[in-house]
Structure formats: C-alpha cells, structure tokens
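Please, structure for the following, as tokens.
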Amino acid sequence: MSDDLVPDDLWERIAPLLPPQPARRHRYPGRLRVPDRIALAGIVYVLRKGVAWRDVPASVVGCSGVTAWRRLRDWTEAGVWPRLHTELLAELRKTGLLEMDDCAIDGSHVRALKRGDHVGPSPVDRARPGSKHHLIVDRRGTPLAVSVTGGNRHDVTQLIPLLDAIPRIRGLRGRPRSKPKRLFADRGYDYDKYRRLLRQRGIKPLIARRGVAHGSGLGKTRWVVERTFAWLHQFKRLRIRYERRADLHQGLLELACSIICLRRLRTSS
C-alpha cells in the first residue's frame, strides 16, 4: 500500500531532502524506527482521505497516525516541503512545461474547525472560524506559491507576499526565474496602490475593475487558478482545516502542490 501512496518517482525526489535519521543507541536501542517511506505514506493517506490522524489504519499504511504526524512535524520544521516544490518547478521549467510570463492569483476560504494560528472570522461563512488559501499559478495552472492566512484577511494584502514567495526557479541556463511579466487577478485586487507596486517590479497588472460590467475577457486566462484550487481541494484534508498549527497545514498545502507538479511531469513523459 505504501508504494501506491508514495510512488517511486515521488520517493526518489523526496528521499534526498529528508533529514538524516538519528543514530540508534547501542544500549537500550528501543523500538526500530518506522522507515521514512512508510511514514510518508501515512502523511499522503491523511492528505488524500482527510481522516483524523488517530484513524490512520496501521494495517493498511504500515504505521500509526501519530508516527506520521510526528514525521510531518519534523519534516515541516526541516523545510522539506518548499525544497521539494522548488525542485519540481525546476524540472518543469527544464522540460518547457512552465509558462511564467502570464500568472494568475486568487484566494479561497476554508473552514477551520480547531482554530489555531492564522484563523479568523470568515466573512463568507457567517463569521465562523476559517482560514484562507492564497495561490499564484502559471498560465497552465501549475502552482508556484501558496500560503495560508486567517479567514478575515483580504486577498490583496497577500499579493506582494505571495509574489515574494515564488522561489528562484532554475532548470535553464541563465538567471533563475522568480516573477511573471503579467499578473491576472479579479476585482478583489482592484487597488491602484498595488498596481503601482506591480509596475515597480516590472510586472504588468491585468486586474478587473470594480463597478465595470463583466466581460472584460480576463477570465479566459484567470480561470486556471480556480481550476488549481479545485485540484488542491481534491485532497480532502485541505477542504477543511483541522491542524491547529498553521505551519503543518502549510506543509500539507506544499506537499499537495508538489504532487500536482509531479502529475504534470508524468503526463508530459
């Protein structure tokens, strides 16, 4: 089952990024450590199925949910997930599958049942506790950067931080790529201040105007970010936020983005 949850191509990319295992004591060595690949299968199982950590079937996955959660915590603190995502983006750029000239940005609300960091009253859910996923994608919908904030944070406040979160993507000769030429966004980003900030960075803002009738044509390019949100929320653990710690939820988001990038590499080959 672990091979189904963690296929060889995913494991080959993530294994070199994992921190080294602690050496076992010669005297009183204790239990044998669960292999990293099996622990990763537990994390992916929760990400896909959306079950609670305590409900992870050890007989199916090969480890308990507590073990998988601890490994998620350790690997998140070690910065494994953003490095994995960056490496996959570099592979996509190398194979010509990354189109960063045109990018799109948007946000999506999710309910947060256990509160915790980066949780706030959601304006679209009767002020219930919620969080917000912020996402920027390339022209094909490949996720470039993702973040999580409180549900009451306005989308536009995360425009510049999300642009700054795009890694320096290598894969081709020359300078790494880290910003688009044009950025598409909906009316929630319609502020002249942010248009000026984008132009200062050499990015052309293509943002819908509030109060103007629909039909600007920007949706022909901007729809890809909504499709990528649909891909992310196919991972049931991301539809509702259960993690109290925002960094762990962020880690699951980045792992899901990496899996989406890996799927694109598979289809191209």
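The longest strand covers residues 102-112. The CA atoms of residues 38 and 77 lie 19 Å apart.
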